[in-house]
């Protein structure tokens, strides 16, 4: 049997010629209908057939006339056949019948008791029906009595499933054989097809083998994967034509031929910048991860583009490679920038029943001196109500960051902050100054070192003390959640940090102590075990442990002691509400060690709505040994609304073993996940 030939594009199917008679029939009224696509035995095929059928997709629109309905029927033949082709059933037979609703009858199975309407539809048959390909279909529909529903039944005979046969990758090249008559004005070298040899990585990316089911999506996807692999290997100008398939009914196979033009392996040429206005080009060029002369690789170009975007001074960055090589055989690249607004004003608000309301304004400059320097100045009112607060406070700060300080991926940060808090544990009025370095070690690891100074006045139990402290916070952080923003909801990976803060305090006497703290969180998406769709159902786990070594507990400044309770440790207990208290009061003393853990389940209900439930537990120790003291447990639940900035959460938590004078419940409103 002679094979037939067809071309592949976005749709893949056998092209056949048909003759159709067209004439108009007018119906007295628009025609309502219902349609049944009978199961093929393959749920994926059934879902695809339903998706591509215009009879199904347009059914919910207003009723149509006889001619329009007949057009939908006739159009579905090609749509359904193409769908069957895409699964490898190239000799499938599409049968569509249309009849009046009153002629709808069922077979004996439909008469059984306890059959649902959906069950009955699966076994319906039509009497006095017309084939959907009949040219007289519009007249047939027009003669259906008024107020009678048309019934359309689609029945598909899948036939044989085809498999891939011979797969060829060829390149058309001029023949090396001499032209018979080179003096002829039409003399052209003969074009010959030569096989293309792939590297191991390219073959792995192509991943198409004889014998596998001839699914069109796989054939088309193989072209895309191979093209990506070729370009990643430096073939910047590589081209692959749409695959051509040769249908062989005698063997129920398809032979596939790809025309491949790999082109030369090339390096990047001149990298041109366009659109820079306020951002210094020297800074951007120094920051750029690309260099003239390196191998052309789309993944490296995209990584460089994303790295520049992370500076926060560009609203968009487009990377466009030239369509031809320069005189040196290299490929020029153009980066086009659109700068963000340099200044912005934003408002900040938050609320929890323990810390009360927090309201303020922040002014930001994203490009202070032309090298993506950031300056944030904020003024916030705190303690607006709240069971852990005894009055209003404030938090005023200026924060400056200079990226790429002294070396790439190293930021200099300086901050000055004035804080006033009137907590039940203590009153604090403080001025804090710090400066230090944040270094990105690699994609997942970061480290920081600061030098800080604190001047504060603390009143606790009517005793007033002034403290001057010098500290050197050291921290290492790890993050494998792969989130673009820390405000988004993680679904996999792990976050962790370890910090050590040596501190010298000058007050009534000089003391030295060091605070050590570690925390970790991890996330389990139930999609990994096949229970839900990715990101819909996630378990989140968090653990925190800390200890202070050195000075005795009561010699430590009250704000430097360890506490638990609140969103970062044990919800359901007010801020600093877990741990030792002064006798007969609800004033926390603080401790020298603490530990806390959380299990939280997060469920996405719709694209914009979600819910969560959690259990927190923690304790505070009077000594430097964690895992001692009265263990407190809180449970809670809440809902969330997903926004482009992150989820807005509302949580309610209650204590399971409330201490005397403890709160009966806590409410938390926040932007972003708690961890």
Could you name the key traits of this structure?
about 15% helix; about 40% strand; about 675 residues; 6-stranded mixed β-sheet; single chain; 17-stranded antiparallel β-sheet; mainly beta; disordered N terminus
Please bin the fraction of helical residues. Answer: 10-25%
Range of strand content: 35-45%
Largest sheet: 17 strands, antiparallel
How many individual helices? 9
Overview of the molecule:
By secondary structure, the chain is mainly beta. The protein contains nine helices and 32 strands. It has a 17-stranded antiparallel β-sheet that branches. Strand 18 (374-384) and strand 19 (393-402) form a beta hairpin. Helix 6 (200-206) runs antiparallel to helix 7 (216-232). The chain is extended, with a radius of gyration of 35 Å. Residues 1-28 and 103-124 have low confidence and may be disordered.
TL;DR?
This protein is mostly beta strands. Helices cover 13% and strands 42% of the residues.
List the helices and strands and how they pair.
Layout: E1 4-7, E2 33-37, H1 43-52, H2 54-57, H3 66-86, E3 93-100, E4 104-106, H4 117-121, E5 124-126, E6 130-131, H5 137-142, E7 150-157, E8 163-174, E9 191-195, H6 200-206, H7 216-232, E10 239-240, E11 244-248, E12 253-261, E13 268-274, H8 281-287, H9 298-309, E14 314-321, E15 331-339, E16 343-352, E17 356-365, E18 374-384, E19 393-402, E20 410-422, E21 427-440, E22 445-460, E23 463-471, E24 474-479, E25 494-506, E26 510-525, E27 537-549, E28 593-604, E29 609-621, E30 632-643, E31 646-655, E32 666-671
Parallel strand pairs: 2-7, 8-12, 13-15
Antiparallel strand pairs: 1-11, 3-6, 3-7, 4-5, 8-9, 10-12, 11-12, 14-15, 16-17, 16-32, 17-18, 18-19, 19-20, 20-21, 21-22, 22-23, 22-24, 23-25, 24-25, 25-26, 26-27, 27-28, 28-29, 29-30, 30-31, 31-32
Helix pairs in contact: 1-3, 6-7
């Amino acid at each position: 049997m002679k094979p037939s030939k067809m071309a592949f594009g976005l749709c893949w199917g056998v092209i056949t010629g048909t003759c159709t008679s067209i004439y108009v029939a007018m119906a007295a009224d628009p025609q309502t209908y219902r349609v049944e696509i009978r199961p093929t035995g393959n749920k994926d095929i059934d879902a695809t057939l339903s998706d591509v059928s215009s009879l199904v997709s347009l059914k919910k629109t207003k009723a149509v006339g006889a001619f329009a309905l007949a057009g939908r029927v006739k159009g579905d033949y090609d749509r359904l056949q193409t769908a069957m082709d895409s699964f490898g059933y190239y000799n499938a037979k599409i049968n569509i019948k249309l009849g009046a609703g009153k002629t709808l009858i069922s077979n004996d199975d439909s008469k059984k008791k306890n059959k649902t309407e959906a069950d009955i539809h699966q076994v319906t048959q039509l009497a006095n029906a017309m084939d959907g390909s009949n040219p007289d279909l519009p007249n047939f529909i027009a003669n259906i009595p008024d107020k009678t529903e048309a019934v359309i039944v689609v029945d598909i005979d899948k036939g044989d499933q085809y498999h891939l046969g011979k797969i060829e990758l060829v390149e058309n090249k001029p023949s090396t054989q001499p032209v018979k008559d080179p003096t002829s004005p039409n003399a052209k070298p003969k074009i010959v097809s030569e096989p293309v040899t792939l590297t191991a990585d390219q073959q792995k990316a192509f991943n198409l083998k004889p014998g596998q089911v001839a699914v069109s999506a796989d054939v088309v996807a193989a072209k895309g994967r191979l093209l990506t692999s070729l370009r990643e290997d430096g073939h910047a100008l590589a081209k692959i034509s749409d695959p051509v398939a040769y249908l062989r009914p005698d063997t129920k196979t398809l032979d596939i031929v790809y025309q491949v033009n790999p082109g030369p392996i090339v390096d990047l040429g001149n990298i041109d910048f366009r659109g820079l206005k306020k951002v210094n080009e020297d800074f951007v060029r120094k920051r750029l991860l690309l260099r003239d002369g390196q191998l052309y690789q789309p993944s490296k170009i995209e990584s460089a583009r994303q790295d520049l975007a992370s500076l926060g001074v560009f609203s968009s960055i487009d990377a466009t490679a030239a369509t031809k090589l320069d005189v040196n055989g290299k490929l020029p690249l153009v980066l086009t920038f659109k700068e963000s607004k340099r200044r912005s004003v934003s408002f900040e608000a938050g609320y929890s029943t323990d810390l009360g309301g927090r309201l303020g304004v922040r002014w930001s400059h994203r490009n202070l001196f032309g090298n993506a320097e950031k300056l944030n100045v904020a003024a916030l009112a705190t303690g607006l109500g709240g069971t852990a607060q005894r009055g209003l406070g404030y938090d005023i700060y200026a924060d400056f960051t200079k990226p790429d300080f002294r070396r790439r991926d190293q930021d200099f940060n300086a901050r000055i902050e004035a804080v006033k808090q009137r907590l039940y544990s203590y009153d604090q009025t403080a001025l804090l100054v710090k400066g230090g370095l944040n270094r990105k070690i690699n994609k997942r690891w970061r480290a920081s070192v600061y030098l800080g100074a604190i001047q504060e006045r603390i009143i606790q139990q009517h005793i007033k003390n002034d403290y001057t402290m010098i500290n050197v916070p050291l921290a290492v952080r790890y993050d494998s959640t792969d989130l673009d923003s820390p405000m988004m909801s993680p679904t996999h990976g792990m976050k962790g940090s370890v910090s050590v803060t040596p501190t010298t305090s000058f007050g009534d006497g000089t003391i030295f102590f060091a605070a050590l703290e570690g925390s970790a969180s991890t996330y389990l998406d139930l999609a990994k075990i096949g229970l839900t769709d990715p990101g819909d159902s996630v378990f989140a786990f968090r653990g925190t442990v800390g200890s202070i070594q050195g000075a005795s507990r009561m010699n430590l400044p009250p704000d430097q002691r360890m506490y638990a309770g609140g969103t970062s440790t044990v919800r359901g207990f007010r801020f600093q509400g877990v741990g030792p208290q002064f006798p007969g009061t609800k004033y926390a003393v603080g401790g020298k060690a603490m530990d806390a853990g959380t299990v939280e389940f997060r469920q996405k209900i719709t694209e914009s709505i979600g819910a969560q439930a959690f259990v927190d537990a923690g304790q505070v120790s009077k000594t430097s040994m964690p895992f001692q003291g009265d263990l407190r447990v809180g449970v809670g639940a809440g809902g969330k609304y997903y926004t482009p900035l992150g989820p807005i959460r509302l949580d309610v938590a209650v204590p399971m073993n409330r201490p005397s004078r403890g709160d009966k419940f806590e409410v938390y409103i926040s932007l972003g996940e708690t961890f």
